């Protein structure tokens, strides 16, 4: 996967602490000598709508899993051409920008820059270069605003930034090398993702068997009265979820969104924190005691079942663990407080994670152009309820039988995360001249089979505007 890459033979000081040294034969020019701002507007709004993301650059909105903030009309949106640089002015500090690969329209709040010299840059080179962390740090310094998450990079500030300019033919070699490495990395990631899929299928089979038949292979069965459940143990009940909870409710994003988040305080649990194997709080955000008090209806307690009801991670469910302390949820997560005289939190979460219920959730959420799971549909979900003692035995057995699967999935996901980090670092090192790949690029085959781009896991993207990606750019429209 890696090459023995060496630095260039000679370097010079760029004069910029955030950029460091660059190859001695590379040039440097202010952006104003390379780009001009354009403000052309659509008369019809029928052009392809493009989305700007720090993860994927500029891509057609139709390829995104976005349903929020859809405008009734796109008349007056800015028109862009293939090769134009598009910057989300509000979220440039997160490198929410990129070079358009096709003509289209973008939000009126974006800045569109057109190359003054089309032969000065290879589009993919400048796309990679301007999204590196080095340039991202410069956008932060040049942006203005009273809050960190509401900084804006205005045209006069961007156009004053120094941009490195390798010879055009060298840019072609650098991008060819990066394309080849990216293809290799995407193949690796797809292989690992297929393995995760197989492990999840194995886990789902174990859960399906346990929560619909129990642990006794010789148990007497009866018709459940529910087509998708079939026969079930004769001493189990089928109960609507509404009768198994003492409280149901989703939270809200505090007024001000990401601008009111703190580095400490009361955890605000979002959908990216809710996973089938439990809460993951590594990237949890915090709110103040005052905001927590104002959201008194959605305080989380240990033993609450947390269910994602919107977005790409809809249906993910887990139990709030003992020792969680004070916590709250946003609008993408629903709290189900189990009626413990009827159902244990662990069994309820396991049944909600079964393929049967996951399918019901998906159909309810996306039927009739809905954008999430309605509360009434959620409460109507039919749940199999064994005796409490048997529920505990089933949960204990599932925990034992699925633990190694969870460990394996986490290990594989870590491998995927590491190779993505490697890709990010490699791109930055190549386009800023830290490593010399010209010889490696020259040995590449001239034609390689084209492959579809890797599908990024959007369900893991932060919510509430923090990511500066798919949801954020739409909010400005």
Task: Please provide a written account of the structure.
The structure is a single chain. The chain has 477 residues and is of the alpha+beta class. It has 2 domains: 11-189 and 412-475, Adenine-n6-DNA-methyltransferase TaqI, Chain A, domain 2 (Alpha-Beta Complex), CATH 3.90.220; 215-385, DNA methylase specificity domains (Adenine-n6-DNA-methyltransferase TaqI, Chain A, domain 2, Alpha-Beta Complex). The chain contains 11 helices and 25 strands. The strands form 10 sheets. Strands 4-11-8-9 form a 4-stranded antiparallel β-sheet. The longest helix has 46 residues, at 168-213. It is elongated, with a radius of gyration of 26 Å. Residues 455-477 have low confidence and may be disordered.
Could you outline the blueprint of secondary structure elements for this entry?
Blueprint: E1 11-13, E2 21-23, E3 27-30, E4 35-38, E5 50-53, E6 57-60, E7 78-80, E8 85-87, E9 97-99, E10 104-106, E11 111-115, H1 123-129, H2 133-142, H3 155-158, E12 162-165, H4 168-213, E13 221-223, E14 231-233, E15 237-240, E16 245-250, E17 266-269, E18 274-275, E19 278-279, E20 285-287, H5 289-294, E21 305-308, E22 317-319, E23 328-329, E24 333-338, H6 345-352, H7 355-366, H8 375-379, E25 382-385, H9 388-431, H10 438-442, H11 470-475
